[in-house]
User: Which sequence fits this backbone?
């Protein structure tokens, strides 16, 4: 099992920044990719970003490309999502997820059901 704990959410004015963290513990060696998803009220959970655990490759949704940056500190087993130029439409609960090596396909999944472990989520609210 892998446990994921997010932190760093909060209330921020449009144009501002936040950094989310996702600390992983447990059998992290069984995972090959980490992803961030978000879910706004009344909407489906959507892919935001993902990173291969080696840190060699990163992936972004078009809606956040150029504004968000995903990174990983392998020594701390922690994934970060730096969010800049935030917009009200970025308001959502942000969750991190981990994909097991057994699902390896060359690139991380962009659908929630491709991930095996989830954190509890952290609220991000952007006001104008």
Assistant:
């Amino acid at each position: 099992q892998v446990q994921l704990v997010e932190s760093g959410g909060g209330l921020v004015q449009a144009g501002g920044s936040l950094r989310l963290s996702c600390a992983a513990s447990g059998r992290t060696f069984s995972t090959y990719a980490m992803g961030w998803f978000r879910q706004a009220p009344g909407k489906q959970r959507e892919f935001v970003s993902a990173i291969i655990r080696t840190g060699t490759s990163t992936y972004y949704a078009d809606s956040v490309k150029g504004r968000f940056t995903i990174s990983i500190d392998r020594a701390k087993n922690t994934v970060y999502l730096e969010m800049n130029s935030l917009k009200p439409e970025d308001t959502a609960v942000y969750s991190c997820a981990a994909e097991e090596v057994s699902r390896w396909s060359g690139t991380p999944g962009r659908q929630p059901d491709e991930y095996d472990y989830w954190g509890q989520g952290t609220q991000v609210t952007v006001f104008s």
Remarks:
- The two ends are 40 Å apart (CA to CA).
- The chain has a mean pLDDT of 95.
- Residues 4 and 119 are 5 Å apart (CA to CA).
- The longest strand covers residues 18-26.
